[in-house]
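Researcher: Sequence recovery benchmark, item below. Answer with residues only.
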């Protein structure tokens, strides 16, 4: 991808069940169901069962700055977990946890109230009457496969719902699921 004369950066609120690619696969929908803008490519990925901010651009250099791990752009996630994490679990996330592919970098981790406004997810998150759920804000600088889910599981609190709220300075603010907006570039 070559840097075009008119670079674009697009923020998209990816709904649950949509792949971070234009082509659908199996039971998952693709971005083409939502985005009809020629020449844009995904900058970073988000699993089909995760929701939230996905960035797209037509500028190869910008795409690399956003998605290449050596730039360590922070990603902020809102994570609904099973149970109520204690301070020891939060400290473990902050220190970095050991995963099967090595230790993670330290993260910023804190409890948070349920995000507001929060849209309904289809299908809804499973609810078990005997086990409470809670929300965490987790900020990481890596992007390993299913990393946030593996991190919360490693400290004993499986992820039920995962929403990426921000990538660097770009946020979900004001974007409904399936909606997009162009971001002014400096």
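Model:
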């Amino acid at each position: 991808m070559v840097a075009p004369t008119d670079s674009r950066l697009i923020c998209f609120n990816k709904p649950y069940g949509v792949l971070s690619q234009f082509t659908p696969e199996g039971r998952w929908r693709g971005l083409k169901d939502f985005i009809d803008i020629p020449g844009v490519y995904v900058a970073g990925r988000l699993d089909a069962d995760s929701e939230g901010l996905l960035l797209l651009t037509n500028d190869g250099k910008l795409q690399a700055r956003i998605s290449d791990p050596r730039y360590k752009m922070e990603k902020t996630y809102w994570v609904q977990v099973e149970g109520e994490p204690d301070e020891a679990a939060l400290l473990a996330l902050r220190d970095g946890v050991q995963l099967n592919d090595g230790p993670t970098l330290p993260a910023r981790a804190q409890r948070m109230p349920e995000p507001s406004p929060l849209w309904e997810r289809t299908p809804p998150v499973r609810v078990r009457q005997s086990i409470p759920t809670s929300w965490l804000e987790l900020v990481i600088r890596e992007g390993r496969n299913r990393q946030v889910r593996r991190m919360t599981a490693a400290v004993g609190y499986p992820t039920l719902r995962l929403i990426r709220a921000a990538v660097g300075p770009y946020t979900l603010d004001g974007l409904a699921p399936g909606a997009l907006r162009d971001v002014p570039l400096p």
